[in-house]
From TrEMBL:
Lineage: Eukaryota, Sar, Alveolata, Ciliophora, Postciliodesmatophora
Organism: Stentor coeruleus
GO cellular component, one term: cytoskeleton
Cell location: Cytoplasm, Cytoskeleton
Name of the protein this chain belongs to: KIF-binding protein
Keyword tRNA-binding: no
Keywords: Cytoplasm, Cytoskeleton
Pfam families on file: KBP_C (PF12309)
InterPro entries reported in the protein's UniProt record: KBP (IPR022083), TPR-like_helical_dom_sf (IPR011990)
Main localization category: cytoplasm
Length: 550
């Protein structure tokens, strides 16, 4: 055994130092290649080649380090080959000998699982992670000799040093390895689309990190944001808000951007409650049972769990509005327009969305109109100020929202017009409302012209054609709805509607005979509707011309 207490031990300590040494950017793997040569020479030593039990154990340890070495130099196939050799060597040992290297079993099972997941073989990766999980459960129950067999722990002075070949179980490392196993399982399930399992493993990972104190503050807070997003999307909104509050509670130092991001997400979580309340109330659905369900609680943190109330009337909605708006206001102090264009505008859109939800609960039309105008104040100027080429998607979203606000104002004013008993007064009110509809049409036309300039290819054709058609149909329908006390003006609107339907018909016919006809499946149905309107509009125009107003 003298070889294992001298040359073997000394070489692995030297390898560890080399693999951790900083290298010149021009030769990033220089020291790792040197370490690899030492490992290969050690592997070929006659004592290792003896293949008795100590030799096979030593071989397994060397193969594992070679696997790490090749992984870090991005030679993945070779890395997997060495990891597999490590596992096979360990499994060839008697059980009492295997028990000395349980930490290495964990390491190699996790490593093989990661490699499988990285190449998209997530189910195969999960098989390794479940084996590692089962091994951890066994480590908790079996009687093993407790000491570190890793020279790194000796170098850092964090454990009692023993010679590597002697093995033993490092309980602290076993806990760390198991936390990594759970983290990898969360990632794997995320890739397979099993988000609930992914969230469950991620929550357990974060809990273990917090209990052990073994975590990076920024990474842990960012994981809180990611977890909260999942919980809110699935109606566990109180849990989502709690995760964000937990993230805030651990931040020390300035970290303004991170704090502001968490406040922004808290604002969005409360906004989602208002949106869910509108959806639930308007569609006569039941309140989601998950709303205040507790999935994860961390008593070691100062964050408080807050059950959320589900607003059903305007006063409760206003209170939630204030909470959400307060968090957005804090976040906006950091995410100013000069430097954070997207974040700033998205939050202004969020605040506009808050007013939109209040409009649903508000019964007073004057107050609804005031909130609609406030929404315009928040976002309309951005449609003129930002570069729509550089921020194409954001500009289109803003334009869509601005157009819809003008349409909402028009609808409120039309309702007021319909309440007028005298036909002439009613038409005058309609005419007053029309300016908002015409502005909506202007916005839709500008969007359509912008979209039609996009380069069309196999990937973009469907979206471009469908967006253009949606805008065209919207313009044509809106012109046909406009009322006016002046019959000439009214007929003018209808004629514009007719011309738009003709334009749509030609667009559809060209698309049907064009290169990308297969990208929209319902061209025939849309063409049929358009043909009907082209035939109907002249009849309606004739009827209006034949009528006289009172």
């Amino acid at each position: 055994m003298e070889f294992f207490y001298s040359s073997f031990q000394e070489t692995l300590e030297q390898v560890d130092e080399l693999m951790g040494r900083s290298a010149d950017q021009a030769k990033p793997y220089e020291h790792k290649y040197t370490a690899r040569e030492l490992l290969q020479n050690l592997l070929n030593h006659e004592r290792i080649q003896a293949q008795d039990e100590p030799a096979r154990a030593a071989q397994a340890l060397i193969e594992y380090i070679l696997g790490v070495n090749h992984f870090e130099t991005e030679e993945i196939t070779e890395s997997e080959r060495h990891y597999s050799k490590c596992l096979n060597s360990l499994l060839s040992l008697p059980l009492f000998y295997q028990a000395k290297y349980l930490n290495t079993f964990q390491d190699v099972l996790n490593a093989l699982g990661i490699l499988q997941c990285n190449r998209g073989e997530n189910q195969k990766g999960l098989e390794y992670f479940y084996k590692s999980q089962a091994l951890y459960e066994a480590i908790k129950t079996i009687q093993t000799q407790d000491f570190s067999h890793t020279f790194h722990d000796y170098l850092t002075g964090s454990d009692n040093f023993r010679f590597i070949i002697q093995g033993g179980v490092n309980r602290r490392k076993a806990e760390q390895n198991y936390t990594l196993t759970l983290f990898y399982m969360a990632q794997a399930y995320s890739k397979t689309g099993e988000k609930h399992k992914s969230a469950s493993f991620c929550a357990e990972t974060m809990k273990r990190q917090m209990i052990s104190g073994d975590y990076d503050m920024k990474d842990w807070a960012i994981n809180c944001i990611n977890m909260a997003e999942y919980y809110v999307e699935n109606n566990y909104i109180a849990q989502g808000i709690y995760m964000l509050e937990c993230g805030l509670s651990i931040i020390t130092g300035k970290r303004r951007k991170l704090r502001s991001t968490l406040n922004m997400q808290i604002g969005r979580a409360y906004k989602s409650i208002l949106e869910l309340a509108v959806e639930t109330t308007s569609q006569n659905k039941e309140i989601p049972k998950e709303l205040n369900e507790q999935v994860l609680f961390l008593p070691m943190l100062t964050a408080e769990w807050k059950n959320v109330e589900f607003p059903t009337e305007i006063e409760a909605a206003k209170e939630m509005f204030k909470v959400a708006h307060g968090h957005f206001k804090i976040a906006l102090e950091y995410f100013i327009i000069d430097g954070y264009v997207t974040e700033h505008i998205e939050m202004k859109k969020d605040i506009s969305g808050l007013y939109k939800t209040l409009c649903y609960f508000e019964k007073s039309d004057p107050r609804v109109l005031a909130m609609l105008n406030r929404r315009l104040e928040l976002i309309e100027n951005f449609t003129k100020e930002i570069n729509k080429q550089s921020y194409s998607a954001l500009w289109q979203h803003l334009m869509n929202e601005v157009a819809s606000i003008y349409m909402d104002i028009y609808e409120v004013k039309v309702i007021a017009a319909e309440e007028q008993k005298k036909p002439k007064k009613r038409l005058e009110k309609h005419a007053a409302a029309n300016s908002y509809a015409l502005t909506c049409i202007e916005k839709q036309t500008e969007m359509m012209e912008f979209v039609l300039k996009f380069d069309m290819n196999d990937d973009s054709a469907k979206d471009i054609m469908q967006s253009s058609l949606n805008l065209m149909f919207g313009i044509a329908r809106l012109y046909s709805k406009l009322e006016d006390p002046d019959k000439v003006v009214r007929v003018g609107y209808m004629e514009k509607s007719y011309r738009w339907y003709e334009k749509i018909r030609k667009y559809l016919q060209d698309a049907k005979n064009g290169k990308y006809a297969d990208k929209i499946s319902d061209l025939n149905e849309q063409l049929r509707v358009c043909e009907e309107m082209v035939a109907l509009m002249p009849i309606r125009i004739s009827q209006v011309n034949a009528d006289s107003y009172d």
